[in-house]
Amino acid sequence: MNTDYNRIEKLAERFFDGLTSNAEEEELYTFFRKEDIPASLEPYRKLFNYIENELPVALAAQPRTSGPRRRLMLWTSIAASLILAAGATILLHRHTDNPFEGSYIIRKGVRITDPKVIRSELEATLLQAELQCEELESLRSQAFEPYEDFIRQIPDEYTQEIVRDFLTGNF
Amino acid sequence: MKAITIIVFLAVGSLFADLVAQEHILSFIKKCESIESVEMDAIRNPKENNVTLLAIRFSDNDDLLNELLAAFKADEPNANEIIERKVDGKMMPSMITFDEVCFSVKIAKETKTVSLTQMNGDKIKSKIAAERRKHIH
């Protein structure tokens, strides 16, 4: 039984990463229709029930509007689903009560491990790190721009990767 | 017996290779732990007992900044990739990547705050893999 629940948790993570097949999503919907599920998975029930039952109805019920407005509404619905998914992801990682267990901050030479104190600081640090990464990845792709036209002319992707590795000195 | 000894030495050597590759930057970070004016945040993975992300911040300290830049320069020959940016007419490192770890530096001109972030393992791999996938499509 524990294995089944572990599988469901793993499927849920894959769902939020956009990696699940239709069959796997069906498996998730079927599971969350059950009455009796572990408390740790209970936070997901509402989300998956919404995505299975209410979201398609909500999308179908929207009047067809012209071009840009329709696109805006579609993106708004997608954004709302993603926010729900993100919230459920946070709930999943919070079910251990301390997602930053073992982490610490140092302020004025004092090491602080109290989760209540460090949580918001570490969340901000994580966000800054992600933003820095994004910025640098964008710089990196800009550096590749002059070569990309040439690389795209190479017929197979494997050789394209080799050329990119060569250009970055990873060859 | 001789072959086994050589294999063991090679295996141990390769384990330490990545640590040695960034020894100057790691020494700088170690030094910062005991400096009161430096803030440090460490996110650890308790299951694997390692640090997945380490962030250091200090402000208005040109000496420390110069030490950091010197450490980057010293470890450069061992890096897989270096991204630099022009800041106030000088080329400054923004990111330096080794096999299993990368360091990024951001300098805020207005507040003169320097942020050094160390990211280990999957975090950078997934980022770099995601970037690669973007290029493929």
Could you provide a short overview of the structure?
Chain A has 171 residues and is mainly alpha-helical. Chain A has helices at residues 2-16, 22-33, 42-61, 67-94, 115-152, 157-167, and strands at 104-107, 110-112. Chain A folds into two domains: 1-95, no CATH class; 116-171.
Roughly what percent helix of chain B?
40-55%
Order of helices and strands of chain B: HHEEHEEEEH
Identify the strand order in the major beta sheet of chain A.
1-2
Output the structural class of chain B: alpha+beta
Low-confidence stretches of chain B: 130-137
Total strand count of chain A, please? Answer: 2
Radius of gyration of chain B, Cα only, in angstroms?
17 Å
DSSP summary: helix tally of chain B: 4
- What general form of chain A does the structure show? extended
The span between the termini of chain A is: 47 Å
The Cα radius of gyration of chain A reads 22 Å
In percent, how much strand structure appears in the residues of chain B?
Answer: 35-45%
Total number of beta strands of chain B? 6
